């Protein structure tokens, strides 16, 4: 008679229990690593963030980088704590990572002394890339590619570059709003990016042109598509392409509303809290439009 196997129950439960302990250890290890990294990161970039809160992030329509930074940190921690990240195995990745890290730190010191906001914000990406290469190697970079790509939204672009990009858009917005309201009988005209309505003269600023909203909306849209992970590449690309006209249309409606408020309520009425409130409302409408468009595409695909 064959001898029965001993303790089948203990053997069947050994590996699940072991995997649970290993998973708990990985989460604890990721948490300790994350805490150490956050402390080191804040020691380096904390004073920069404090200055940015009073300068770069305080500018109209440029208050989204802190939210992007929080999203990047959350996504990176979720990926690392999931246990899919493996320690670096390639020796070349260590030297490349050290080189990139020292380049980032050198650029940070230079930008800090010279007070170059663009370079300071760019060093966040360089330092993060060097650290990932040193700890997790090339595979780590591939697994954290989305976090690195999303960190591009943290860059504080120089004013001359923003003006160069926004000027054609400001002309388009002012001309479209002027022609649209004039067709409804409003005494309005435009000269460049300036709108003349009644006795008032309004300048279409960078924030009203839609560039800042476009940056914020595309960041939200990209994070949304990354989280839901739609299988259709064509649908994802279509939603991404529609972010641009949605943001521009939302800001044109905002400018038209502010023009009407100014014409009927006076200049002060169009520059008080209604100015900021209209921006938040139209941004919310734009995000809702993206979600609605995505849900329609999902139903059509079915």
How does this structure look, described?
It is a single chain. With 302 residues, this protein is mainly α. It has two domains: 134 residues, no CATH class; 143 residues, no CATH class. It has eleven helices and three strands. Strands 1-2-3 form a three-stranded antiparallel β-sheet. The protein is globular. The N terminus is likely disordered.
SSE sequence, one letter per element = HHHHHHEEEHHHHH
Largest sheet: 3 strands, antiparallel
pLDDT below 50 for ≥5 consecutive residues: which ranges? 1-18
Distance between the termini: 58 Å
**Class computed from helices, strands and strand pairing:** mainly alpha
Rg, Cα atoms, Å: 26 Å
Tally the structural domains.
2
Give the strand order, joined by hyphens, for the main sheet: 1-2-3
Strand content: under 5%
- The shape, in one word, is globular
Number of strands: 3
Number of helices: 11
* Percent range of helical residues: over 70%
Average pLDDT for all residues: 81
């Amino acid at each position: 008679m064959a001898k029965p196997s001993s303790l089948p129950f203990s053997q069947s439960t050994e590996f699940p229990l072991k995997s649970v302990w290993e998973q708990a250890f990985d989460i604890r290890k990721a948490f300790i690593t994350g805490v150490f990294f956050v402390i080191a990161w804040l020691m380096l970039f904390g004073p920069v963030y404090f200055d940015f809160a009073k300068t770069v992030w305080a500018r109209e329509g440029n208050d989204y980088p802190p939210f992007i930074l929080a999203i990047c940190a959350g996504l990176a921690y979720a990926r690392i704590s999931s246990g899919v990240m493996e320690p670096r195995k390639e020796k070349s990745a260590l030297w490349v990572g050290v080189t990139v890290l020292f380049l980032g730190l050198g650029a940070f010191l230079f930008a800090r002394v010279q007070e170059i906001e663009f370079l300071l914000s760019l060093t966040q990406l360089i330092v993060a890339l060097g650290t990932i290469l040193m700890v997790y190697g090339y595979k780590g970079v591939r697994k954290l590619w989305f976090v690195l790509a999303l960190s591009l939204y943290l860059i504080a672009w120089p004013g001359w570059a923003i003006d160069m990009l926004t000027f054609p858009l400001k002309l388009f917005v002012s001309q479209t709003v002027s022609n649209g309201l004039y067709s409804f009988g409003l005494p309005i005209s435009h000269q460049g990016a300036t709108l003349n309505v009644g006795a008032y003269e309004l300048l279409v600023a960078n924030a009203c042109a839609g560039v800042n909203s476009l940056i914020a909306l595309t960041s939200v849209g990209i994070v949304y598509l990354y989280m839901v992970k739609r299988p259709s590449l064509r649908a994802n690309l279509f939603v991404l392409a529609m972010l641009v006209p949605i943001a521009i249309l939302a800001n044109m409606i905002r400018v038209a509303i502010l023009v009407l408020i100014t014409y009927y309520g006076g200049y002060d009425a169009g520059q008080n809290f209604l100015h900021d409130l209209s921006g938040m409302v139209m941004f919310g409408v734009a995000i809702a439009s993206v979600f609605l468009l995505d849900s329609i595409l999902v139903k059509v695909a079915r």
